[in-house]
Amino acid sequence: MARIVIIGAGMAGLAAAARLGTLGHRVTVCEAAPTYGGMVGRYERDGFAFDTGPGVLNLPAVYRDLALKSGREPLEQLVDLVPVEPESRHLFPDGTDLVLPNASRGGVAKALDTAFGAGSGDRWGEVTNRGRAVWEATRRPLMEEPLPEGRLADPYPRPPRRGPAKWLPRGSYTLGDVARRELGDHPGLTALLTEYATRFGLGPDAPAGATVLAYMEQSFGVWYVRGGIRALADAVFRRCEQRGAEFRFGTRVAEVLTAGGRACGVLTADGERIDADLVLSSSPDPGLGWEKPGGGLGRVRVLLALRGARPEGTVHRTVVHAGGADWERDALLHEESVPEGPTVQVLRPDDPSLVPDADHEAVTLTVTCGVREGDDLDAYAGHLLDHLAKSGLDLRERVLWREVRSTAWVPVPSLAGGTLNPPNGTGVPGLYRIGGGAHPGGGLARVGMSASITAGLIGPA
């Protein structure tokens, strides 16, 4: 049995504690905040409740595996997990209204043909087929196994070049290149492709392999946890307690201690020493063994308490696309501060547990953008509501109150051909990295995999 200290009780820390406790280790989790969950937070006021982090779940197989490996129960016995159907609605500046089915690539192709004209579905399908090739080539090294040494080439299978271009040197091939060369710069298809990447903090200069994000979502589906994604954090926390993990909230770790070149415990901000055989850190703090990967994109979230019932037939997730796609791409490339008329994700779950009664609705707006100190985010929330109204989604007269939250950093997924997040092992024996800033990167599924990979490296007691 090893004594293990985990720094941070976010989803990576919770998943690691559940797995390592099941393997027979003695686990202590130190969390600076007063509760667990990290970015998977919850805000409650006047009978309304909101997720302050992710609002939907991709690749639930990661947490199904955690549930089975740590307790031999299906995830569906721990939370009420339901598919989001339809998967999304997309409102474009030219008035196009596109509704995409969940986990149905054939249905997506049909919807695209209807919205954008015959052949659009086939063109999109060719790109997502290449995304499938990326998934098959990178699923194990970039999702399920320790990060291999060296740079991984982007396995995106580029289409053959024709004409004089075939004689030019083959440089890097980006998501923007896919939009231009394979989607013909079609404004709707381009906006759809880049939105998947933008949600993960990636710009149009991301490797073409970022098409895997669209492939994964449209092939494996999008899911919702009733009660909000915070209910998933609650379930994993309960599993940690069942496996004997000790939680120390309000305990900020100031330093990872070493002896003989090996991690031997942590020192808290209060000066307390906690001895350990192994330390896992989900905190991108140089004093704790590693620094946050580069990237300056953040998120702005606006939580809206609305009067009036959720209208019949309302889609769970609506994406209002930017009025100036070229301008937004430039803003993302240069990490400019809160842009005007951006792409906005609107979450409107049909979940009675999130509202005081049936005559109210809880809505969350999310924008991925640069966030700078001094930005007037409440004024920006008003701008976003005006922007939605111009797109035909006017919520302004129903707003009882709004709460604005922001984060200055979006953990991005590791992508072959791009910047890879640091590996789970470190140069210090006994010290490991987990969480969104480590391999395999950001997102609920990937932070869960970082815990699984690291638990595999450590092994049973």
TrEMBL record:
Protein name: NAD(P)/FAD-dependent oxidoreductase
PANTHER family linked: PHYTOENE DESATURASE (PTHR43734:SF1)
Chain spans, region Disordered: 147-167
Lineage, top ranks: Bacteria, Bacillati, Actinomycetota, Actinomycetes, Kitasatosporales
Keywords per UniProt: Signal
Signal sequence segment: 1-17
UniProt KW Signal keyword: yes
Residue intervals of the Amine oxidase domain: 11-284
